[in-house]
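The data are passed on as follows:
___
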Amino acid sequence: MTNKISDGKVALLQMNYLINLIITILIFFSNTSFGNNNKIIFEINDKIYSELDFRFRIIYLEKINNIKYAPNLEKDLKNDFFNSVIFYEYVANNNRLNNILTKESKIIFEKIKNNFNFSDILKDEYVIKNINYDYSKKIVLEDLLKNYSEYILNEPNDLNFIYNYKINYITIPADNVISKESIDEINKLKNTLELTNFLKERNIEHHLASKNIKDLKKISNKIQKLINSSVNIYTEKNNNFYQIMIIEKELEFNEGIFYNLINFETENLLTKDKENCNYIQSLNNIKSSKEYELSKLNENIKNNLKDINDFLIFQNNNKFNYIFLCQIKVNKDFLKEVNISKKINFIAKDIELDFVNKYSKQYNAKKLYE
């Protein structure tokens, strides 16, 4: 049976998504206002929206968010305005959703009136319009997200969601002669910086491209295996080029995460086959093994120890002091919240794009500002 996420939980998390969406297009300084001409910027369902409507929306958002928009964000803001009106038109033609909007927008309007003074800069009708635009997007996305509750609630303890993942692709033309020994060396490297330095030192022509992984469920099996393996570099060759893929990940959070660090001291550097937690934990002369809250660790450890088997080496009195990361724990409730929130963000962005594309055609929408 499909799990059903509660309306309250979806509403809270979806509101977080909308807040994040607004934050991504805000900037915290600007004394320049947008142009005041009143040309038409778009049409939706035979209704015209002008520069003046857009200016009223900017006034509303700047007041609500206590922030100023920079003029170079104008196109992004107009796109957001366009999308919001598409959602509003849909809600206006849906009795069930329109009833929700009518009820909730009145409550929101009263709260805004109690917290913000618009009387001198914007009439009530424009405040209500913009509440309707934004809340329409919220309730439509919230409604559509219910269809994805099984995915959203699945695997709430997946540690992958505490990271941001990126794939770096290094392409090398096949006419660059690379020996098997060099390929073996490449496969032992740990990150993109080491690899690019390796190639530059040998004057090997290469091209670097990067791609952020937003949803781990939408990647190839090859990439999925690479993420889940202890090896983060994969090399393949076809007739025209070599392609090297490097998975890099950064912890997105500090709070709620705990590291088990093992401290081991030796007079000789460990060989490659022994640079792992399995070997270290089998030893009898471990100096210490202790759990630490990540937020309280120093920046050197935070920046360099991100995954199991990562380690640092310090030399002291002719001895090598190793610190290995051998276990990561995350507060259960925090991890569940992160999982749900990230999945909603992934899905909501795709839903919004598909929805706007579909109903732009149905409502004969036309952008005149591009």
In short: The chain has three domains: 7-152+336-367, 159-251, 257-330. The longest helix spans residues 332-362.
